[in-house]
């Protein structure tokens, strides 16, 4: 089947990687897995041996293929297939999220996931995105630590996909347990986004400018004032706003 570049389709064809993803997810028969971007169903097939699966697929051609391939599972209710855009379709109730997602929607899909109720997620990302997700020297990583704990499990070579992407991928496991608590999430995310948009400046100047623009009076220690945003980490960002 011909893949659609506009949808960022790269099918995982290495069964060894598929098996490890299922193992990382620690699936049991009581689980209901949500999978976004089922593609040709290789990962879907492996998970259906363990539990029920709900798949969201945007490509009509893939939907037709999946309906034929998993017709028996659809009939007995083990597999439910939703034809739609995962960023627009409301997520049905699920316990775990396991997906090789289209990389171009990694950020918005991850934030949508983190606002859902789930126990565990195992997600294949582009390697660079995965590494940023698991560090807190960047906007994404700092904000994500207030939602969850993420760990990079392994790097997956591009040869494991068809067609092979230009870059390597990585498997990340996500636990919905915040590493850093914040009182005002909207203010925190606005502040972090503002700071990293001015990341060449030191935090003292950034705090002053943020205060003028948003009418917020924030005190900052001299030691932190001399640092740049990428040197702080999520915990220090949260501490700064506590002094508001």
From TrEMBL:
Cellular component per GO, a single term: cytoplasm
Main location: cytoplasm
Binding sites annotated in the UniProt record for S-adenosyl-L-methionine: 10, 12, 37, 57, 85, 100
Enzyme Commission number: 2.1.1.-
Gene3D superfamilies listed in its UniProt record: Ribosomal RNA adenine dimethylase-like, domain 2, Vaccinia Virus protein VP39
Ribosomal RNA adenine methylase transferase N-terminal domain sequence ranges: 17-178
Location relative to the cell: Cytoplasm
Keyword NAD attributed: no
SUPFAM superfamilies given in the database record: S-adenosyl-L-methionine-dependent methyltransferases
Top-rank EC class of the record's enzyme: transferase
Similarity comment: Belongs to the class I-like SAM-binding methyltransferase superfamily. rRNA adenine N(6)-methyltransferase family. RsmA subfamily.
Purpose of the protein: Specifically dimethylates two adjacent adenosines in the loop of a conserved hairpin near the 3'-end of 16S rRNA in the 30S particle. May play a critical role in biogenesis of 30S subunits.
Protein name per its UniProtKB record: Probable ribosomal RNA small subunit methyltransferase A
Source organism of the structure: Archaeoglobus fulgidus
């Amino acid at each position: 089947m011909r893949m659609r570049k506009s949808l960022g389709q790269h099918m995982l064809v290495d069964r060894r990687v598929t098996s490890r993803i299922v193992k990382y997810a620690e699936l049991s028969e009581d689980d209901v897995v949500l999978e976004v971007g089922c593609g040709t169903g290789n990962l879907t097939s492996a998970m259906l041996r363990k539990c029920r699966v709900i798949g969201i697929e945007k490509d009509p051609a893939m939907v037709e293929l999946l309906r034929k391939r998993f017709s028996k599972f659809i009939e007995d209710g083990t597999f439910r297939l939703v034809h739609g855009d995962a960023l627009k379709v409301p997520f049905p109730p699920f316990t775990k999220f396991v997906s090789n997602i289209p990389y171009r929607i990694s950020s918005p899909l991850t934030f949508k996931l983190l606002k859902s109720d789930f126990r565990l997620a195992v997600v294949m990302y582009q390697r660079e995105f995965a590494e940023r997700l698991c560090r807190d020297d960047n906007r994404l990583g700092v904000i994500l630590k207030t939602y969850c704990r993420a760990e990079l499990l392994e790097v997956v070579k591009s040869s494991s996909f068809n067609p092979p992407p230009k870059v390597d991928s990585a498997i990340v496991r996500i636990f919905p347990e915040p590493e850093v608590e914040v009182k005002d999430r909207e203010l925190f995310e606005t502040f972090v986004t503002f700071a990293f948009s001015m990341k060449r400046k030191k935090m003292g100047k950034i705090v002053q400018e943020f205060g003028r623009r948003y009418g917020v009076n924030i005190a900052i220690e001299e030691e932190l004032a001399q640092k740049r945003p990428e040197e702080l980490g999520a915990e220090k960002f949260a501490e700064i706003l506590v002094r508001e």
